[in-house]
Design goal:
This is Transcriptional regulator with AbiEi antitoxin domain of type IV toxin-antitoxin system. It comes from Arthrobacter oryzae. The chain has a three-stranded mixed β-sheet with strand order 7-8-9. It is α+β, with helices and mostly antiparallel strands and 267 residues long. The chain is globular.
Length: 267
């Protein structure tokens, strides 16, 4: 990895800054090291990757809503385009097996298991920083973040009805949905706001077609750490004021039919 970069002092304020050399071919036997907590993002050091984003676990969950546990005390590095690695370089390393693409511009070292926190961080890279705190990843995007659905083609972003979304609609690669969000409907992980597991299950049942909704709902209900229970989900849907959506949602729940002993069957 030392052959990729050279550091030099270029900061106008006297600080250290790093400028990459022209991209070079990565040797086949090169391994990508993980960044650790406390590593300065100024000059390259031995066994560090300054362009990696470190996701520490377990992160705090926002607004008191239940959510999945963090990845543990170990530090997981998520690599994204930055001062040291360009996107073409990351793509080249992924082609050589040195990295694994998680979502769009987010990459993981081989062997690192994607967690909800890492998926949320990768998704956040596709959301402009200026609006990141104004939107909530929801529906099938949130189901994917929780590991219960396939990677989305477009991010489904929820915007509270009290906020204006007209300025957001021009953003590419995202679909915006104006909704009402309660204090327990949102958790924070990986630098992104995400709908809580229960709110995610309710939205999937109400707004996603049955072919995609039923497998995602099964997966959400099958994970005890998410805290979604079938009886609670039915009660939440019954409280929905939209009758047409409610009937379709209840039909999706009826198609799930949890097996005896399944955690989802517990009340």
């Amino acid at each position: 990895m030392r052959g990729l970069f050279r550091a030099r002092v270029t900061g106008n304020d006297g600080g250290m800054a790093v400028r990459p050399r022209a991209p070079t071919t990565v040797p086949a036997n090169t391994t990508v090291p993980a960044i650790t907590a406390g590593t300065e993002n100024t000059a390259p050091q031995a066994n560090t990757a300054p362009s990696a984003t470190t996701v520490l676990g377990p992160p705090g969950l926002g607004h008191g809503a239940p959510g999945p546990p963090g990845p543990g005390p170990e530090h997981c590095a998520l690599y994204s385009p930055g001062a040291m690695f360009s996107w073409p370089e990351l793509q080249a390393m992924a082609s050589d097996g040195l990295l694994t693409q998680l979502y769009q511009r987010g990459y993981l070292p081989p062997g690192v298991v994607a967690s909800p926190q890492l998926r949320a961080r990768a998704a956040s890279l596709a959301v402009a920083p200026a609006i990141r705190q104004r939107v909530v990843a929801g529906r099938m995007t949130a189901a994917w973040i929780y590991g219960c659905a396939a990677e989305p083609d477009r991010l489904a972003l929820l915007v509270d009805a009290n906020r204006r979304i007209s300025s957001l609609r021009s953003m590419r690669g995202c679909t915006f949905h104006e909704v009402r969000l309660g204090p327990l409907d949102v958790v924070s992980m990986g630098g992104l706001m995400v709908s809580s597991p229960l709110r995610t299950a309710v939205d999937v049942a109400l707004h996603v077609e049955q072919e995609r909704a039923v497998p995602a709902l099964r997966a959400l209900l099958a994970r005890p750490e998410l805290g979604v229970r079938l009886r609670l989900l039915r009660l939440a849907i019954d409280a929905s004021p939209r009758l047409p959506y409610k009937r379709a949602a209840l039909a999706k729940l009826a198609a799930i039919r949890p097996r005896p002993g399944d955690p989802a069957a517990a009340g």
